[in-house]
């Protein structure tokens, strides 16, 4: 490959970020080398310093989604909590903090998976991991296996519904509702201190 100055080829993260923006805004069919190069004001040669081909870029995008969304959610489920409502507030952090869970990316990946069977299997695996992580949290706090499964399905499917419907609501309104969601999911009202800690994290 002809040598290309670093400033003209960018970086792997720069190309990946541009692909992310294109995926979220226009879908996977729009993610092509030339449009990416044009958006970055670089030549297509720069792309091939970091990715062998478009398929390798696709894999990097999927791995970013798995790490950012599923990985972070599982980590939140594994955090220490004195009761189930505190544990659920830890999970709810994902829905309010885009650095923990990227909702537009999740929707874009799900839309992409509709035409990519291999990706659909990975999405199904990711959903299973998320559900099992939440269910484990319920079991850890004394819920039966049956109750843990049903409640974890409710938690995850509720959020998938939010994402799929592209629900837009004022942040303050959603924050105010979270404690009520937690009460519904847990079957018990959260303690005031847990509500206050959650709101302080997003204040």
List the helices and strands and how they pair.
Blueprint: H1 6-9, H2 12-26, H3 33-40, H4 44-47, H5 54-77, H6 84-96, H7 103-113, H8 117-140, H9 145-165, H10 171-186, H11 192-201
Helix pairs in contact: 2-3, 2-7, 5-6, 5-8, 6-8, 6-10, 6-11, 7-8, 8-9
Notable features of this structure?
203 residues; mainly alpha; elongated
How would you explain this protein's 3D organization?
With 203 residues, this protein is mainly α. It is 74% helix and 0% strand. It has 11 helices and no strands. The protein has helices spanning 6-9, 12-26, 33-40, 44-47, 54-77, 84-96, 103-113, 117-140, 145-165, 171-186, 192-201. The longest helix has 24 residues, at 54-77.
The structure class reads mainly alpha
Ranges with pLDDT <50 over ≥5 residues? Answer: none
Number of strands: 0
Radius of gyration: 20 Å
* Straight-line distance between termini: 51 Å
How much of the sequence lies in strands comes to: under 5%
* Average pLDDT metric: 95
Order of helices and strands: HHHHHHHHHHH
Total of helices: 11
Let me know the largest β-sheet.
Answer: none
Summary, kept brief:
Helices cover 74% and strands 0% of the residues. By secondary structure, the chain is mainly alpha-helical.
């Amino acid at each position: 490959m002809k040598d290309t100055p670093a400033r003209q080829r960018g970086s792997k993260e720069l190309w990946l970020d541009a692909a992310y923006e294109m995926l979220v805004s226009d879908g996977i069919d729009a993610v092509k080398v030339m449009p990416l190069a044009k958006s970055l004001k670089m030549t297509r040669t720069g792309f091939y310093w970091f990715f062998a081909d478009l398929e390798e870029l696709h894999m990097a995008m999927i791995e970013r989604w798995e790490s950012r969304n599923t990985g972070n959610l599982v980590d939140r489920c594994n955090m220490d909590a004195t009761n189930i409502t505190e544990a659920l507030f830890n999970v709810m952090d994902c829905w309010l903090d885009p650095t923990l869970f990227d909702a537009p990316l999740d929707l874009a990946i799900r839309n992409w998976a509709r035409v990519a069977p291999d990706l659909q299997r990975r999405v199904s695996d990711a959903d299973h991991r998320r559900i099992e992580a939440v269910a484990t949290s319920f079991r850890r706090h004394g819920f039966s296996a049956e109750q843990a499964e049903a409640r974890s399905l409710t938690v995850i499917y509720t959020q998938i519904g939010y994402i799929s419907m592209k629900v837009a609501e004022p942040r303050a309104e959603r924050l105010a509702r979270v404690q009520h969601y937690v009460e519904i999911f847990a079957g018990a009202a959260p303690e005031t201190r847990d509500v206050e800690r959650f709101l302080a994290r997003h204040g």
